[in-house]
Every structure is written in structure tokens, then in C-alpha cells.
Amino acid sequence: MTSLREWKERRPASDLKQTVEFYHPAFGYYRVVNNLFLPASFGRNDYEPARFSVTEPAQDGTVTIAMTITFVAATEHVRKTLKSWRGASRMTAISCKYGIWEAIGDLSALKAYTLYVKDISIDANNVTISSGMTNPLTLANPIIYTTENYPGLKNL
């Protein structure tokens, strides 16, 4: 069986469709597809058109998987969606699913990564999202402090 890398080398990259799906209880599902002008369906889910670039994980045998997604056009909708992740909702991580599809309407992706959003950088022109395999909320502190157990954390 050919690997994804070999398959991509034989096929024009413009034929492959890239999708990104973010999920958080604060804003629900946010699904976008790269380089299309109209909404499209992949895996029975609808994706809105967007323009972004993806730096895929290195395929060099390392264990660390990290990916960077940069939205380069029409970032206002992305910015508004991700800004709803505030307050108490920040105690739950944003999940990110990146998929590579052969054609519009396919039911399964050629390759898919499910990651956690580690960092969101927003400037005047771009939104850059860094993601990785590790849930960032469990790295620095394994204890989730709640106001029931720690009433001193309450904001008045």
C-alpha cells in the first residue's frame, strides 16, 4: 500500500481538500475548508470556505506532533468565534481536527489528525493557531481549581 506522502507526490496537491474543525462547548463546531469558494460537505458535515495555510507535523520519526494553522484572509469570523472562549469556559480545551480529503462529498478522510489547541495568536491580519497532541490544560497543573472547593477564587 502506498503511503500518503507517495500518493501526494504522484497527485497534484490542488486536488486535495484540507479541512479544519474546531470544537468547544462555548462555540460548538467551527468547520472550514481551504481554498474553496462555496460551502462543501465532507464526512456528512458542512464546511464553510476559508483561506488558511497548514504546517503539518514533521514525518521524521519524532514522537512530538505539532501543527500550525494560519488563517490569512477573512479572519474576522475566526477571531469572533475564538474570542467566545473566555471566562469559566477556558477550563475546557479546544479540540482541533485536521483532515485531508480526496474529493468533495467523501465520507472518510485520507488522513486526519485530532489535536488540542495550544496557543492562539491574533494580530491585525492573521490568526495563527498552534496545536499539539497534549491537552495544554493538564501540563502545568493537574488540579482543576473550582470555586466550590476554593471559594477564594470567586470574582465579586
List its traits.
seven-stranded mixed β-barrel, 10% helix
Model description:
The protein is mainly β. The protein has two helices and eight strands. It has helices at residues 4-10, 75-83; strands at residues 17-24, 28-34, 40-42, 45-55, 66-73, 95-101, 111-122, 127-132. It has a seven-stranded mixed beta barrel with strand order 1-2-4-5-8-7-6. A hairpin with a 4-residue loop joins strand 7 (111-122) and strand 8. The longest helix is centred in the middle third of the chain and has 9 residues, at 75-83.
Task: Summarize the SSE layout with pairings.
Layout: H1 4-10, E1 17-24, E2 28-34, E3 40-42, E4 45-55, E5 66-73, H2 75-83, E6 95-101, E7 111-122, E8 127-132
Parallel strand pairs: 2-4
Antiparallel strand pairs: 1-2, 1-6, 3-4, 4-5, 5-8, 6-7, 7-8
Radius of gyration: 18 Å
Mean pLDDT: 80
Which stretches are low in confidence, meaning pLDDT under 50 for 5 or more residues running?
none
Strand content: 35-45%
Helix content: 10-25%
Instruction: Briefly note the structural class of the backbone.
Output: mainly beta
Strand order of the largest sheet: 1-2-4-5-8-7-6
Question: What is the tally of helical segments?
Answer: 2
Bulk shape: globular
Distance between the termini: 61 Å
Spell the H/E element sequence. Answer: HEEEEEHEEE
Largest sheet: 7 strands, mixed, barrel
SS elements, strand count: 8
Short characterization:
The protein is globular. The protein has 156 residues and is mainly beta.
